[in-house]
Amino acid sequence: MIQYRLPVLAVRDVDVSKRFYQDLFDQDIAMDLGRNITFSGGFAIQADFDELADIPKCTILHQSNNMELYFEVDDFDAFLERLRGFLDVELVHPPKMHEWHQRVVRLYDPDWHMVEVGESMEVVARRLLREGYDVQQTAQIIQHPVEFVEQCRKGME
């Protein structure tokens, strides 16, 4: 049986990347093997990936923009305030709101992997419900099943 485990990001400096994910994203280390760090969030970083995979170093692309790590936060404004303290982080785009009313920001990690931080969809649903939208309207706006919105509504009671 084949079991999927986790994505592994190639990094130039494992210590810099380790601090980045610990400090900005509160990722705990599940396993530290020196050149390979697995985080509690279900992904890993790997130094010297070219040697490990037996591929030319020049084939490891930086800022390829063809994948991203995705995180959600309940307090998006607090995350943006925290992000302001990381002066060397380059944004892919400034914070914006998608058509489904979720606020997001995308940024690059130290090795130019794209990272998205989005407002929790539960928070988005509850906000719309508090604004007076009913369950059906909220489900339509956020493009999620009615059952999801019902669960969010129950969590407000």
Characterize the structure shown.
The protein has 157 residues and is an alpha/beta fold. It contains 6 helices and 8 strands. It has helices at residues 14-25, 49-53, 76-84, 121-130, 135-142, 146-156, and strands at residues 8-11, 29-32, 36-39, 44-47, 68-73, 91-97, 103-108, 114-119. Strands 1-4-3-2 form a 4-stranded mixed β-sheet, with helices on one face. The chain has a 4-stranded mixed β-sheet with strand order 5-8-7-6. A hairpin with a 4-residue loop joins strand 3 and strand 4. Helix 4 (121-130) packs across helix 5 (135-142) and helix 4 packs across helix 6. The longest helix has 12 residues, at 14-25. The termini are far apart.
For this entry, give a set of tags.
157 residues, 6 helices
Layout of helices and strands:
Layout: E1 8-11, H1 14-25, E2 29-32, E3 36-39, E4 44-47, H2 49-53, E5 68-73, H3 76-84, E6 91-97, E7 103-108, E8 114-119, H4 121-130, H5 135-142, H6 146-156
Parallel strand pairs: 1-4, 5-8
Antiparallel strand pairs: 2-3, 3-4, 6-7, 7-8
Helix pairs in contact: 4-5, 4-6, 5-6
